[in-house]
Amino acid sequence: MKRILCVVLVVLAGCAPGLEPVLSFDDGRDGAWGTDGRFGAGLMRDSFRVRVSESADVDVFVPLDEEDEPAAGPFAPVLLLQGGLVETARYHWLAAHIASRGHVVFMPHHIGNLAFFESNLAADVLEAGRDQAATGQGPLRGLDPDAPALVTGHSLGGVVAAKAWLYDETVTHLVLLASIPDPADAVETGTGLVVSVAGATDGRIDPAEIADGAEAFSAPTVFAVVDGMNHFAYTDNNSDADLESDGPLEVDQDVARARATFMLDGALADLVGADSAALFDAAAWPAGVHR
What we know:
The protein is 27% helix and 23% strand. The protein is an alpha/beta fold. Strands 1-2-3-5-4-6-7-8-9-10 form a 10-stranded mixed β-sheet, with helices on both faces.
């Protein structure tokens, strides 16, 4: 009886089993960079088989249509990697934003919330997601299994994201959020596109250090500074200890996030071959964002 009731509830909710709508479809959203796209976003918590005998917990966000069902696609994949000792849930707002713009987002959980010690996990999760999408069934059916991917990471997650971009040939775009590459990685050999975003009031990593990190890439690289943005503006549910270790957030958090996601959305546009000219023209960036 309980099982039948669960099935009925799923049908009434108008959503695929295991998929939780977190953002509604809205065809009125104009898709401007730094704002949510027209798709809704649904969260699926799943366990992916990686390698032969291991599995990984993954938060997956998929675009939803007006019926709260997985949208048809095709959608390119995005990997979103957490900062050190930060739970993936604190970035769910960002994953929902990316999914609303027409991408399937994979957020692998790392042991101890430290992506640095599982640097190969992102590539394994991406491969498993592509394999699942290739079946044409289930919530990932809108993912294009052959599309190039973008990887983004915040803080320590960005260090690992740079490794995924460098060593996984299917990952062509890298977005660093308050982060730098590992000096031990030969990032000057990588190809594709790099976008690096620094917060002007970041108390955890100096914007000048982020600028130096961006200089290490030989691939086309866009570096931007967001005025008034600190390190933990990217994360929800910040603790007192987080905030005490950081610089001040001098603008409204939503404003800071919109400025940063403008740059991210430009990279997403470039990933799918849409017009991305404004990404490379600082004069087209919103107020409060500059080189």
